[in-house]
Specification:
Blueprint: H1 41-51, H2 56-62, H3 64-72, H4 78-94, H5 98-108, H6 111-123, H7 137-153, H8 158-178, H9 185-200, H10 212-215, H11 227-231, H12 250-277, E1 294-307, E2 310-316, H13 323-327, E3 336-341, E4 347-352, H14 357-361, E5 364-369, H15 373-380, E6 386-390, H16 395-407, H17 416-419, E7 451-456, E8 462-466, H18 488-499, E9 502-506, H19 513-526, E10 538-542, H20 545-558, E11 563-565, H21 580-592, H22 596-622, E12 626-628, H23 634-639, H24 643-649, H25 653-656, H26 702-712, E13 714-717, H27 727-734, H28 741-745, H29 755-804, E14 808-812, H30 813-818, H31 820-826, E15 830-834, H32 841-847, E16 854-859, H33 871-875, H34 883-889, E17 895-896, E18 899-900, H35 905-908, E19 920-921, E20 938-942, E21 948-950, E22 955-957, H36 959-974, E23 982-986, H37 989-1001, E24 1008-1011, E25 1020-1026, H38 1042-1049, E26 1052-1060, H39 1062-1068, H40 1073-1083, E27 1087-1088, E28 1091-1094, E29 1102-1105, E30 1177-1181, E31 1188-1192, E32 1232-1236, E33 1242-1246, H41 1392-1395, E34 1410-1412, E35 1419-1421, H42 1422-1430, H43 1460-1478, H44 1481-1497, H45 1507-1512, ...
Parallel strand pairs: 9-16, 9-17, 10-14, 10-15, 11-14, 15-16, 18-19, 20-26, 20-27, 23-24, 23-25, 25-26
Antiparallel strand pairs: 1-2, 1-6, 2-5, 3-4, 3-6, 4-5, 7-8, 12-13, 21-22, 28-29, 30-31, 32-33, 34-35, 36-37, 36-41, 38-39, 39-40
């Protein structure tokens, strides 16, 4: 609870009624002064609590009389009771003196107040509710805290008074929780703590019942903790591990170890949270220890990511400062974290993923959170502030073991008779058999002896023993005589391992446990084939990775193959080849077989999903510091019905929000481009581009594209770091309210909104956008996790195959539990566990499978025991007793190794007999040398310096000891020891950190410093031990542990030195162990206050060091005497006595050098250093130039580079800027000059760059055929010959009525918006351009008169019902709609003016009926709307296949049951068109195969990298055509390169430069080609080919050294001049070139290649599905007519041969136009809103014929006046014309209107003409065709006005002069030599534009982008 207290509304006593609170704090009721009303002082208490809490206690003491009266009053209101409780809480928390507080409490704690008023307040807690219906959490916190403080301050009142309110509050909270009220976990925890204080005062009369957690089956307990048990101690009764004795049952055995192990990691977390969040004892002090809990504040989930296992979330937090945090093991991978929301209402658990140390140190960590992705993204990501608590126990080691215990069957516990029943008789291994023999030749010292000589028998003969077949029962063989290199205990251990199924081998320090274990493994491997046919692998398990590496390296010596090491934390280079990961990669192809492609596909799919999630996450990160573009928010704007208002205003989002990027001081990121919807199912890590683009991801950096693409969705992005100049924008983005639905409904024009309302509206759109983005992200995450699980299963199968082929598997205990499913499949028979006495019993148990028949445990229970996280569980519940120790305690037979091979006898005497009774020294240890420079090899230094305690690490350190040992380490290194020979040990991690810090300061970082617990199993020559503990209280902590002390004293081989306060430790120890050790040390004179050091050079000189500063007396490690040894140079050694470097090979003489140079200059260096050349500077004359220069003495004058400035001129006549001695040829002239480039452009550049081929960056500015200006530069457009793709925005309207969002291009790609198709049963979830699945539910269209019985997707079989609706509106007036249709919201009485507004003409009729359009909400008269939807029956004109639109707002009509058949007919035709556009799967596969065969067969074909993957990823027919054209271009260029090799060097270079320019253009333009680009590229290749032919002819003559005539040379130069002109190569230029080439052939005759033969590129015509009209042949096949869409010639259908097309814009009689296709809708006038054209696509077998006509221009003319669109509603100055009833109409259409003629009046509707108007004459201005691309600054277009009535056109008028027939597109994917369509520039008027009489449908025209 934080923040300033807020006051609540007054609640008078007389009107105590529960009501919702508007704030979280109550204020007392107003009343008379406290002088007349004692309770009135509570009013002042409320003010003091909020404003001056430090004055509360004096105020209460001053008004004790009034306070006493309040305590005696039985009827104090709940509001006043709360005020008093809060005041008492503040007083008790802020006052440290108990006496004055006790005086106040004595006045208040009266029975009347406690038992009446306080209990009444608690009973009325339910009334303290917020508006959300929940009880105020702040009031609950204050109440619980006040009661807790009262109990601790007045414990004597607990039994008599305070127990009642506490019990009532506890019961009230439980009752409220059962009714749905929520309380934070902190409140619940503190309430339980308060209840515990009360319960502690009442002795229990009987044992408590077992908690539910104990009674339940442990298999159902979750592994992860729950909030209940973290905040509230469940009080479950745990059972102890049994050190001695058997368990009741197998189930009880598993249950005990599961619960103890789970409690071991839960209890420290619970205790730490309790210490941090519990209420403290205000007067008694806080005796609780915080433990090792790590707490991080200000935590937020900021990002979503992916790991191989699934989704993860990045948590940012306030990183702790200090070196302890940087060096501590915080937030390791696998650690458990608990996220507690700031209000304590939400608790989440997660594990650390990865544990990236640099990120952790910066305050960021990735978490795998166990919660629903939807909740995390919607409720918490970037919103909730958490407190993150890290568990002290390493969760990863618990998690897998607990899961393994739950999966274990109680009926199949391995070795149940020993581990559960503790049976002492051990049986032999079941799989060995009775007559098993072993080949023991590996135990021979040579490893090759088959027979071993034995001693003399009783007869005196020498016998030989066969070691290849030894039985375990042959006792005479198992003796030291047979195996002389083994002692008796080692032989006995090996024999027991081979003869018993449950083996225990104890190995004291240095006795060779690892050696014996390796011998046993080698024997079993050598003899495995004798009893196993399947030869299952052995399993070797160790506790630590280091011990496992050592053991596995030993196995590799005798088993180099078949060894697998599982786990990624191995540090051994030898085991790298044996790791499971490397073996999997090495054997993967052979293991996978047929599944290899599936594995690769799954990995590729997972990688794509990962990038997709990263992309969406990047957009989500930028969302709250960036302004989205209006294109991105188009869907949200459309959902609010503001799209029309926005498009009319043509707003830019930054301008609309009044954001000026240039106004801020620090320029933020200005996003380039306008992005698409983030939820689209595109590949978002690629650039936004045409769907038909050539997909090539091999050369892209996904991380770079991801950020670039994400930023492109924003018009403006603030920098990540905050600054004052951006605070206003940040506040607007993150704070403030949003517009409600009601506010949005009242918006008419977004341009008229105030700035504040604009931001409210933008935040509404942004939140809707964010919601949709998170919805998509949730789907992606779920899909990713599903795929990741599938890949993990496949990897599991691969690992299983690898492991089944192995012979030995090694892993740690945690790894064995993690990979237990693999072990269950492998079922190893033999398991060897090293360090068994240091492993928890549950860890060993999960390593075993039911198939295990042989278990060998090797360890020493007298050294380190297992280390539980909780001390109570370790000592009280015996969780620290290992299975190894428990079995020995239960008299299970075991073997102890007796001879130690490690320690010098002086060191081993510390262990015997204090730790081991029978431990003996091997003879080899007595031969160790003594430690150099120290008098004794073992010594304990006594001191009295005090310890220090670290609050951060909860550990101890001792600076005195640390400094002494660091100095002693330095001294030992000076004696000649290597850093690897010295190790420093200490029991405390705090001391480890301190010593390592001092070591780094003194450059001794390689000296090992470890905690004792981390060094078991290790050893070193010299060990230094720091005991740390030194205090007055005599606390010694870890030093009491006998096992830990045993390890500390037994790690050294040759020397052992310990420092500590031995006297204090021995006095403080509870046991006599330390007293015995100190007595032993004093007896042997191995302890004292100082360590005696002996000089190696002067043995009689000794130095006693008592502290670190004493080592300064011997700075060089010897003594204080001078060395004085004469060196090779004749000088004496100036150092003091030093034991190292006695031959002075490393010593550098410090005396000055006495040598002279030739000019008698003295050497300035030291004596030992090489002299080198003399560097004294002298003046010399340079011979080359005569200048006088200062030159070093050793440098010859002719070798010196003169430094004078050069005075010569360069070839360019500019002065040289080099020095005199430098060659002028190396000088780069940097004078700025104007250079005329080959493209005739002039560029200003440095002079030297004119010899290089500069890149011309001049803007192209040529007008493309689309009407836009080219935005490429001269270099990109190859000097204007090959233009880049138009970069303007396309605004065409697609078939689906959506606007195209791609760049300007001839063929719009399929729509990528979300499909709007839906019905009453379901909605389509695909993209709009994809084909929808049909709904198969029954049709829901029914009324009282009719009912449809077909399926929802089929055409309805019922008529429209025209009966009036019998319902009544909310206003009680009758409905104006029709039966069975949705009731219009407009009433004929209440909305008369709106409903009677004339539009169709019959709206004001009294019996008029209306229909509401569900898509836009407009209400229209039904007869007019029927005509609008069905069309006019006599109209024979054609129209586009497109959805009908609302005649008022042009919204597509997709959901209206009355017009179901019209809508379904159109949707069916759109579906057929989509099928034609996309093509079938068979066509695509055949096309891909063809291109791949060609790509792989042509060796000379060189395309860009990734072309093969682009072909494989192609998803449309158009993409195949683009790829085919690309291959054609590259093939032609390859042939031209071969031709260039036949030319001279200069000509070859010229040709290759031109060829490379085309190749660069192709590589830059990996997209679909426009017709203009195809034509330009073909022409450019043709031009180069002509030029190559001429160069080859000329080079041939020159190579033959034949002379050329003057005429031939002139003709050749003329042809070359034509080909090298800067303008594009056109057909007219080619014709003129042909005439010159024919003359050259006459003057330069040559056999073979003719000059007129140019390279001809095979080009496949693009599918023009973006323009044209659709028709049907007599057989029903679809085809299109391009350009203007009217037929100008006849042809044959490519599918059936029927006649198609027509003449003079008239369709043949047996063909069907698209309007006739749409039954039952009849012919209707062409709507202005439809897209400009569509061209036919090929069918599955052939290319459809596509006759052409004059196409309309897709872009308005820049010099023509912009068209104007009339408003759909009535004009302000005149009523709208009423549409007369249909009647006879004219037989022909009027001619095109003149620009000057006024608009005519509306003609009466009648029959439509059968002929088209004449085309414009050459002398008349061309008509303005409708443009599908409105210009940004042009107003909406107006449909063409009809001509004056009476002027009819001649039916026999000539056809359009611009309409030219087009060669039909041939069948097949690749045409051999198709003709490229030559388009006129789109800025010219092409063809005739059909004029129609004005009618109501022109009202539906949108903003000028309809044809």
């Amino acid at each position: 609870m934080s923040g300033q207290k807020r006051r609540r509304q007054d609640w008078p006593d007389s009107t105590w009624e529960p009501r919702p609170l508007k704030a979280t704090r109550l204020s007392p009721e107003p009343g008379p002064s406290w002088r007349t009303d004692p309770c009135a002082i509570l009013t002042d208490l409320e003010k003091l609590c909020d404003q001056r809490p430090q004055q509360l206690l004096p105020f209460l003491l001053q008004h004790d009389y009034q306070l006493e009266q309040v305590g005696e009053s039985p009827g104090v209101s709940p509001a006043r009771v709360y005020t008093l409780l809060r005041a008492l809480k503040v007083v008790m928390e802020s006052t440290g003196e108990p006496e004055p507080v006790q005086q106040v409490l004595a006045l208040v704690l009266r029975p009347a107040f406690v038992l009446r008023s306080l209990l009444g307040f608690i009973a009325e807690l339910e009334s303290f509710q917020h508006q959300d219906g929940q009880i105020s959490q702040e009031i609950m916190e204050d109440t619980v805290a006040a009661l807790h403080h009262l109990l601790t301050a007045s414990p004597k009142q607990t039994k008599t008074l305070l127990c009642y309110p506490v019990d009532l509050l506890f019961a009230t909270v439980q009752r409220l929780q059962s009714r749905g009220f929520e309380f934070t976990w902190i409140i619940q925890k503190r309430l339980h703590d308060t209840k515990s204080l009360v319960d502690a005062t009442f002795p229990r009369s009987s044992a408590p019942l077992a908690s539910p957690a104990w009674r339940e089956d442990f298999h159902t307990i979750p592994i992860f903790p729950t909030p209940e048990e973290i905040f509230v101690d469940p009080g479950q009764k745990l059972k102890r591990n049994l050190p001695v004795g058997k368990y009741a049952s197998d189930a009880a055995y598993l249950d005990t170890h599961f619960r103890l192990l789970r409690e071991d990691f839960v209890r420290p977390l619970r205790a730490g949270i309790s210490a941090h969040f519990s209420l403290r004892n205000v007067f008694g002090g806080d005796g609780r220890q915080r433990g090792a809990l790590r707490l991080y504040r200000n935590v937020q989930l900021v990002k979503v990511g992916t790991s191989p296992a699934g989704a993860m979330y990045m948590a940012r937090f306030q990183a702790p400062q200090g070196s302890a945090h940087a060096s501590s093991k915080r937030l390791l991978s696998g650690s458990l974290t608990c996220l507690i929301s700031s209000d304590c209402g939400q608790v989440l658990f997660g594990t650390v993923v990865g544990g990236n140390r640099p990120e952790v140190l910066k305050g960021a960590v990735w978490l795998d959170i166990k919660a629903n992705h939807s909740d995390l993204l919607r409720r918490h990501l970037g919103k909730t502030n958490f407190i993150m608590v890290e568990s002290p126990a390493f969760f990863e080691s618990y998690r897998h073991v607990l899961e393994g215990l739950q999966e274990m069957d109680p009926a199949q516990v391995p070795f149940q008779s020993y581990v559960v029943q503790c049976r002492t008789s051990v049986a032999p291994p079941a799989h060995f058999g009775d007559a098993v023999t072993f080949d023991l030749s590996v135990l021979h010292p040579t490893g090759r002896a088959n027979k071993e000589t034995m001693g003399h028998t009783s007869e005196g003969h020498v016998t030989a023993v066969d070691l290849t077949a030894v039985r375990p029962c042959d006792s005479y063989i198992w003796s030291p005589e047979t195996f002389p290199h083994l002692d008796e205990s080692q032989i006995l251990a090996i024999r027991m391992a081979l003869s018993r199924e449950f083996v225990l081998i104890q190995g004291p320090p240095g006795t060779g446990k690892t050696f014996i274990g390796l011998q046993i493994v080698e024997i079993l491997l050598r003899n495995q084939s004798q009893w196993w046919e399947d030869q299952r692998p052995f399993l070797v398990v160790c506790y630590t990775n280091h011990a496992l590496d050592q053991f596995m390296e030993g196995i590799l010596r005798f088993q180099p193959s078949g060894v697998v090491r599982i786990g990624g934390r191995s540090r051994s280079d030898k085991l790298a080849v044996c790791s499971l990961r490397n073996l999997r990669q090495k054997q993967l192809p052979a293991l996978l077989g047929a599944a290899k492609h599936q594995y690769g596909w799954m990995r590729k799919t997972l990688q794509k999903q990962k990038k997709s999630i990263a992309y969406r996450t990047a957009v989500l990160e930028l969302l709250h510091r960036g302004i989205l573009t209006d294109t991105e928010l188009a869907a949200e704007i459309h959902d609010d019905n503001l799209a029309r208002s926005w498009s009319v205003g043509r707003f830019d989002m930054c301008d609309w929000l009044k954001i000026d990027p240039g106004a801020v001081q620090e320029k933020p990121v200005q996003a380039q481009g306008r992005g698409r919807k983030a939820g689209a199912e595109e590949e978002p890590w690629l650039r936004p581009r045409d769907e038909r683009a050539l997909d090539d991801e091999d050369d892209l950096d996904p991380s770079e594209w991801r950020q670039s693409t994400a930023e492109e969705k924003f018009a403006y992005i603030l920098p990540a770091e905050g600054s004052s100049s951006h605070e206003g924008l940040r506040k607007c983005l993150k704070e403030g309210d949003i517009m409600t639905d009601e506010d949005v409904a009242n918006v008419r024009d977004v341009g008229e909104l105030r700035l504040r309302d604009r931001w409210r509206l933008y935040r509404r759109w942004m939140l809707a956008y964010e919601h949709e983005l998170k919805e998509t992200l949730v789907e992606k995450l779920e899909e990713y996790e599903k795929k990741a699980a599938q890949l993990a299963e496949l990897t599991f199968q691969e690992d299983l195959r690898v492991l089944k082929r192995s012979r030995v598997i090694g892993m740690t205990t945690t790894g064995a539990a993690k990979y237990r499913k693999l072990l269950q499949k492998i079922q190893p028979h033999t398991v060897i566990v090293e360090e068994a006495a240091e492993i928890l019993e549950a860890h060993v148990l999960t390593c075993l499978t039911p198939a295990c028949k042989h278990l060998i445990l090797i360890g020493d229970h007298q050294q380190l025991r297992p280390k539980p996280a909780d001390y109570t569980l370790e000592k009280k519940y015996f969780l620290g007793i290992s299975l190894f120790e428990r079995m020995i305690n239960n008299q299970i037979p075991y073997v102890q190794l007796l001879y130690q091979h490690r320690m010098h006898p002086e060191i081993s005497q510390l262990l015997v007999p204090l730790f081991y009774k029978q431990l003996k020294d091997h003879s080899a240890v007595a031969e160790y040398e003594k430690i150099k420079g120290v008098e004794s090899s073992v010594f304990f230094i006594q001191h009295a310096a005090a310890e220090s305690h670290s609050a951060d690490s909860e550990s101890y350190s001792n600076k005195f000891e640390a400094s002494f040992l660091v100095s002693l380490s330095r001294y030992l290194l000076e004696q000649g020891y290597d850093q690897s020979q010295v190790t420093i040990l200490t029991p405390y991690h705090g001391q480890v950190l301190k010593i390592r810090t001092l070591m780094r300061r003194r450059d001794m970082g390689e000296v090992a410093v470890h905690a004792v617990d981390d060094f078991q199993g290790e050893e070193n020559d010299i060990v230094l031990l720091s005991l740390v503990r030194s205090n007055r209280e005599g606390r010694i902590g870890f030093l009491q542990d006998k096992n830990r002390l045993c390890v500390s004293l037994s790690r050294a081989r040759k020397g052992f030195y310990c420092i500590g306060n031995l006297a204090s430790i021995a006095a403080g120890s509870n046991s006599k162990l330390w007293k015995d050790i100190l007595r032993l040390l004093k007896r042997n004179k191995l302890t004292g206050e100082g360590l005696t050091l002996v000089c190696q050079n002067h043995p009689d000189t000794k130095t006693v060091v008592k502290e670190s500063s004493d080592f300064s007396k011997i700075p060089d490690g010897g003594c204080t005497l001078q060395c004085q040894t004469r060196l090779e140079c004749g000088h004496p050694c100036a150092r003091r006595c030093h034991p190292y470097d006695r031959d002075h090979s490393l010593y550098v003489c410090q005396f000055p050098c006495s040598k002279l140079c030739e000019l008698n200059h003295r050497c300035p260096r030291k004596c030992k250093e090489p002299c080198g050349p003399c560097s004294v500077e002298v003046e010399k004359v340079i011979p080359k130039c005569g200048h006088l220069q200062t030159v070093p003495c050793h440098m010859p004058a002719d070798h010196w580079l003169c430094q004078e400035p050069c005075k010569q001129l360069l070839e360019c006549k500019h002065p040289c800027t080099c020095r005199c001695g430098e060659a002028c040829s190396t000088c780069r002239c940097k004078e700025m000059i104007d250079v005329t480039l080959p493209c005739s452009h002039v560029m200003r550049t440095e002079c030297y760059k004119q010899k290089m081929p500069p890149i011309c960056l001049e803007t192209c500015k040529q007008k493309l055929e689309c009407g836009h200006h080219c935005k490429g530069n001269c270099y990109e457009c190859v000097q204007g010959r090959l233009h880049v793709l138009c970069r303007n925005k396309c605004t065409r309207v697609l078939l689906c009525s959506h606007q195209c969002q791609e760049s300007c291009f001839e063929n719009c790609p399929p729509c990528k918006r979300k499909c709007p198709n839906k019905c009453r049963h379901s909605r389509c979830d695909k993209l709009c351009g994809e084909i929808c699945f049909p709904c198969i539910q029954p049709c829901s269209w029914k009324c009282r008169h009719y009912r449809c019985t077909n399926l929802c997707s089929e055409k309805c079989n019922r008529p429209r019902c025209n009966e009036p609706c019998q319902k009544s509106l909310n206003c009680s007036h009758p409905c104006t709609g029709l039966c069975g249709e949705p009731c219009p919201p407009k009433c004929r009485t209440c909305h008369r003016d709106e409903l009677a507004e004339i539009f169709f003409g019959a709206e004001d009729e009294p019996d008029a009926r209306f229909v509401v359009l569900e898509d836009c909400g407009h209400v229209l008269e039904v007869q007019g709307l029927d005509r609008w939807m069905d069309g006019e029956p006599d109209n024979a004109q054609t129209q586009h296949v497109q959805l009908k639109v609302c005649p008022k707002c042009a919204t597509p009509i997709q959901h209206n049951t009355r017009y179901n058949n019209v809508i379904k007919a159109i949707q069916q035709k759109i579906k057929e068109i989509k099928l034609k556009i996309q093509g079938t799967r068979e066509e695509l596969e055949a096309g891909k195969l063809k291109l791949l065969l060609r790509l792989n067969s042509d060796r000379d074909l060189v395309a860009w990298a990734g072309m093969e993957s682009s072909i494989m990823n192609t998803v449309s027919r158009q993409s195949l055509l683009d790829l085919e054209n690309t291959l054609n271009f590259f093939a032609s260029l390859s042939r031209l390169k071969q031709q260039a090799q036949k030319c001279t060097v200069a000509r070859e270079r010229n040709l290759k430069r031109k060829i490379e320019a085309v190749e660069r253009w192709l590589n830059r333009n990996r997209h679909a080609f426009t017709a203009q680009q195809l034509r330009e590229c073909r022409n450019e290749i043709t031009r180069i080919s002509y030029l190559g032919n001429i160069f080859v002819r000329l080079s041939g003559y020159e190579n033959k050294q034949e002379s050329l005539s003057t005429e031939a040379v002139a003709l050749a130069n003329e042809a070359i001049g034509i080909l090298q002109r800067q303008d594009p190569f056109t057909q007219s230029r080619e014709e003129s070139l042909q005439r010159v080439l024919e003359k050259i052939d006459e003057w330069l005759p040559a056999a073979g290649l003719q000059l007129s033969e140019a390279e001809r590129v095979m080009i496949t015509e693009a599918m023009q599905f973006g323009r044209g009209h659709w028709y049907r042949c007599p057989q029903g096949h679809l085809y299109t007519i391009g350009e203007c869409g009217r037929p100008m010639q006849q042809s044959s259908c490519p599918e059936c041969g029927a006649t198609i097309g027509g003449q003079n814009h008239a369709l043949t009689r047996d063909n069907v136009s698209d309007d006739q296709i749409l039954e039952p809708a009849r012919a209707q006038v062409q709507e202005p809103r439809l897209q400009d054209s569509i061209l036919a696509l090929r069918s599955s077998n052939d290319q459809p014929w596509s006759p052409t006509c004059c196409p309309p221009s897709p872009h308005p003319q820049p010099d023509s006046p912009p068209p104007h669109l009339p408003s759909p509603g009535p004009q302000s100055d005149s009523p709208p014309p009423r549409l007369p009833s249909p009647g006879p109409q004219s037989d022909s259409l009027p001619p095109c209107p003149q620009p000057d003629s006024p608009p005519p009046r509306l003609p009466s509707p009648g029959p439509q003409p059968d002929s088209l108007p004449p085309c414009p004459q050459p002398d008349s201005p061309p008509p303005c065709p409708p443009s599908p691309h409105p210009q940004p600054d042009s107003p909406p277009s107006r449909p063409p006005s009809p001509p004056p009535s009476g002027r009819l056109t001649n039916p026999a008028s000539p056809a359009c002069q611009s309409c030219q027939p087009l060669t039909p597109l041939p069948a097949g994917l690749a045409n051999p030599l198709p003709t490229v369509r030559h388009h006129r520039p789109r800025t010219q008027a092409r063809g005739c534009t059909k004029r129609e009489p004005y009618s109501f449908r022109h009202r539906a025209a949108r903003q000028g982008n309809r044809c």
